[in-house]
Amino acid sequence: MSIIGHFRREGDGLVGRLATLALDATLRLTPTSRGNAKGPDYLALVGENEVGAAWRASDVSGALVNLKLDDPTWPEPINVRVMAAEDGVFPAIWIRRTEPADKGGEKSPERAADKLASPPGPD
Q1: Among 7, 37, 50, 111, which residue carries the largest CB count within 10 Å?
Q2: CA 123 vs CA 54, 73, 117, 120: distances in Å
Q3: What whole-number distance in Å separates Cα of residue 31 and Cα of residue 42?
Q4: Does residue 111 lie within any of the structural domains?
Q5: pTM, rounded to two decimals
Q6: Beta-carbon count within 10 A of 82 CB
């Protein structure tokens, strides 16, 4: 797990910045009017563009919200937990997706991000 940013409360939502080797963005989590019990509690926006959604955490992890972000240029979405903090600056922790356990002898499909490039060999 890595801290990739920080959020703070702003009105009834959260505002923060995420920064990685490939990402540097200011995000705004705005409350939604949930249509059903499983719908997100917040929409994640960069400017006016929706880039993900967040749900209030209902576990004992200390997280305020669980955030899922996606982008057309990424091979898969990323998961982030915005954690509670006493000073009002909430760390955003990137959570690596884990592959399901091998079931029935079948291997789970490899993800492109998990494949290592072969070292160059003689021609």
Answers
A1: 7
A2: 50, 33, 17, 9
A3: 4
A4: no
A5: 0.75
A6: 24
**Does residue 107 lie in a domain region?**
no
- Separation of alpha carbons 108 and 63, rounded Å: 29
Residue 6 lies inside a defined structural domain of this protein: yes
Query: How many Å apart are CA 3 and CA 39, to the nearest integer?
Result: 26
SS3 37: coil
Structural domain includes residue 117: no
How many domains, in total, are found in the chain? 1
User: Residue 3 and residue 5: Cα distance in Å, rounded?
Assistant: 6
> How far is residue 107 from each of residues 76, 100, 117, measured CA to CA in Å?
19, 10, 20
pLDDT > 80? residue 3: yes
Give the H/E segment covering residue 29. Answer: strand 24-31
Under DSSP, the state recorded for 106 is B
pLDDT top residue among 18 and 62:
18
Each residue's pLDDT tens digit, 36-88: 888 999 999 999 999 999 999 988 888 899 999 999 988 999 999 999 998 99
